[in-house]
Structures are given as C-alpha cells and as structure tokens.
Amino acid sequence: MSTRQRAVAFDVLETLLNIEPLRERLDGIGQPEQLLQPWFMRFQRDSMALSLSGDFGSFHEVARQALRTDTEHTASEADIDHVLEGFAELPAHSDAEPALRRLSESGVRVGCLTVGNPDATARFLESAGLARHVDRVVTAEQAGVWKPAPSIYRVAAHRLGVAPHDMALVAVHAWDCHGAKRAGCRAGWCSRLEGEYGEVFTPADATADDLVTLADRLLELPER
C-alpha cells in the first residue's frame, strides 16, 4: 500500500518565508521593530473578519490599513510602501528548500496556499530557489476568500488535481491546520513559531520541529 500523500500545500508567510527582516524596514520609517508581530496579527484578524462578514480585501489593502492603525496613523503612505515592498525581498527559512525538494522528489505534488500577494509570492519562490519544486500556487485573492475558510483549502486541492482528503497542508499556525482539517484535508504542523499546538484546534496528523522532518512524517502517513 502506498504511504505517500498525493499533494502537499505549504503556507507561505512565516512557514516558508521569514518575515523577521521586516523589522529593519519598520525601524527605517521610525517605528519600533516590536510592531512586526502586532501588525501581522492585526492583518490576519482583519482579513478573517472580512471573510466572516462576506467581504474581501486584497493583501495590500488589508496589510496597508493594519499598518496605518498600528502606527497610530503616524506613518506616511510612502513609509507604508517602503515596508510593504520589503515582502518581495524576504528570505526563505533554511528548512524550506530541502523540505519541498524531499516531497517533490518523492512524487508528491507540491503547492503553496497563501494569503500573500500573488506577484510577490511568485517573486519570492523564484528568488529563494523554491519555484522549481512547486507545481501550483493558490492565493486568497484567486480564491476570493481568506484562510481559514474551508473553501480555500478545497480550492487548493482542486488546483493540485486531488480530492481534499488526498492533500495535506503544512503550516506553522495551528489555526491554519485546523482550517485544513475542517475542510477534509490532512495537516502537518511545524512548531517553529508557536511551540505548542493549541488544544482548542483539531489535532494535526503530523508534527515536527522543522519542515524537513515534517515532510518525512507526512510521507509516512498511511493512505486513506
């Protein structure tokens, strides 16, 4: 019996992509570096709120407004542009490329499922040397809904040519894994960001401290 996942979709922001260098951009516009996480959390919250109320805003619209609010409207539009432009220059985490390569070489279809901007995501994958391992990129803007709405995970599975139960999501956010599980997918959680998996969420099918080990554990899961 095959033990391979037919497809694995990776979250991008914080899972593959390291957002820490944005702290320097915040400092460059006279804002505290510590603003990074509150801003990113506000961006996630506001995007989810739009989806829950039946609306949608693009990555740049929501991220821009969140940064205006978190800087208490002291940042100019040029300042905000400077920070947002930094997304195109962010590096990959060191375990990203070997994890994607491991899955791709094992015959698994590899995708990315992100709330990020489509063009910036494509540039990141190319510059980080990840694009050659990725079969498909699905963004919230393309799906018309934000994570963790179940429909976005089903869209990703469809784009990868598999049923939801044949796709696993990989993320460093437990809430993202929960969304995938509720959509009928499998989920692999990397503890790099959160340390412990939240008990209020549906457990992931595989967990690990790094993406490479997580990829191996997903490959070891029995076929459904």
UniProtKB/TrEMBL annotation:
Q: Which InterPro entries match?
A: 2-HAD, HAD-like_sf, HAD-SF_hydro_IA, HAD_sf, PGP-like_dom2, S-2-haloacid_dehalogenase
- Key words of the record: Hydrolase
As one GO molecular function, the record gives: hydrolase activity, acting on acid halide bonds, in C-halide compounds
The answer to whether UniProt assigns keyword Hydrolase to this entry is: yes
Q: Which domain of life is it from?
A: Bacteria
Keyword Hydrolase part of the UniProt annotation = yes
Spell out the family assignment given in the record's similarity comment.
Belongs to the HAD-like hydrolase superfamily. S-2-haloalkanoic acid dehalogenase family.
Instruction: Quote the PANTHER family the UniProt record gives.
Output: HALOACID DEHALOGENASE, TYPE II (AFU_ORTHOLOGUE AFUA_2G07750)-RELATED, HYDROLASE, HALOACID DELAHOGENASE-RELATED
Enumerate the NCBIfam families for this protein.
HAD-SF-IA-v2, HAD_type_II
Name of the protein described by the UniProt record = 2-haloacid dehalogenase
